[in-house]
Design brief:
Largest sheet: 2 strands, antiparallel
Structural class: mainly alpha
Distance between the termini: 57 Å
Oligomer: single chain
Helix content: 55-70%
Number of helices: 6
Number of strands: 2
Length: about 190
């Protein structure tokens, strides 16, 4: 029963995020923003959808019980969700699931962005580890942890390239110290 309640909560959260993203996308595009990475975005959506299909199949067919450490894992999951809200609030109208960039916009460097470059991707990565662990879905954990890193290896460089060209991203990054070190390119 917990499995289904948990899935409903996560699915509801994702639906709310899609609605926020659509609203923000409409606003940004009305201001002249452009979207990048449409091809890989479809793949990313497919990976996230298949993650839940895999989780359901592995949990139902494998009849896995909850992990013995499930209370701790659920607590970590909820802390990560608070961090997700922090990210969305920090970016405000600029938060989106797509790469949509408004030329010459000031890069957001508040909230979690004061500390790391891509907190939203870190949050998703942690979720793709924690959720399968809660339900002992180790195949889902293994497969989608790898797929997530592969899609991020495409997405993050593209996002940073576009931000560097269209905004003050590089200036913002080099002017602030962060917890996660920045490897600077020599010019």
């Amino acid at each position: 029963m917990f499995f289904y309640i948990f899935l409903i909560v996560v699915a509801s959260q994702r639906l709310i995020e899609v609605l926020i993203a659509k609203r923000n996308e409409k606003w940004m595009k009305s201001k002249g923003a452009k979207e990048y990475g449409k091809r890989h975005y479809r793949l990313m959506v497919a990976i996230h959808f298949l993650f839940f299909v895999s989780l359901i199949m592995e949990s139902i067919l494998g009849r896995s019980d909850l992990n013995s450490d499930w209370p701790l894992l659920v607590a970590v999951f909820f802390i990560v969700q608070l961090c997700r809200v922090w990210v969305i609030m920090a970016l405000g109208r600029f938060w989106n699931t797509k790469i949509i960039v408004l030329k010459d916009a000031e890069v957001v460097a508040k909230g979690p962005y004061k500390f790391i470059k891509h907190p939203n991707y870190l949050i998703v990565t942690i979720e793709l580890i924690i959720i399968p662990l809660i339900f002992n879905a180790y195949w889902t954990l293994f497969i989608f942890a790898i797929l997530n890193q592969l899609i991020l290896a495409i997405r993050i460089p593209l996002e940073e390239e576009v931000l560097n060209k269209q905004t003050n991203y590089e200036d913002e990054l080099t002017s602030k110290r962060r917890f996660i070190p920045l490897i600077r390119k020599s010019r």
